[in-house]
Amino acid sequence: MSETQENIDILDAESISSLHELLQDDFLDILSSFINLMPELIEDLKTLSESKDLNSIAKITHSIKGASGNVGAIYLSNTCESLEFGLRNNSIEEPSPYIDKIEEAASITLNELRDKFFQVSS
Q: Tell me: the pLDDT tens digits for 61-74?
């Protein structure tokens, strides 16, 4: 794990605990759906970045931010917030570097969720 990854909170343990308590048996299904959907959303962002469709990029970024926040994936949610805010305020014309950061944050987050909740014990 890089130094940057060690110094950030990837998941919000309190939010995840509350979600688990609330959803009980459906908790892992929700996380699984999130994990399975995220690569498609990231690919959509990358495709839209090539076409410079900033409005659609903002909408997908907002969706990723919300879904991430809902499952306690605060690093990914916060990373998306930077791009969404910049696009909504017309202060970002080139979203590619932000999308690269979102892709990295998604990878780190999904790995963390898989390791924490879906590892098969030997």
A: 999 999 999 999 99
Q: Of 23, 59, 28, which Cα lies nearest the Cα of 41?
A: 59
Calculate helix-pair angle for 96-117, 27-51, nearest 10 degrees: 160
Which sequence spans correspond to the domains of the chain? 9-117
CATH number for the domain formed by residue range(s) 9-117: 1.20.120.160
Q: What are the pLDDT digits (tens) for 35-57?
A: 999 999 999 999 999 998 999 99
Q: What's the pTM value of the predicted model, to 2 decimals?
A: 0.89
* Residue found under tokens 């969706």: 63
Q: Under the phi-then-psi rule, with left for phi > 0, alpha for psi from -120 to 50, and beta for the rest, what region is 56? A: alpha
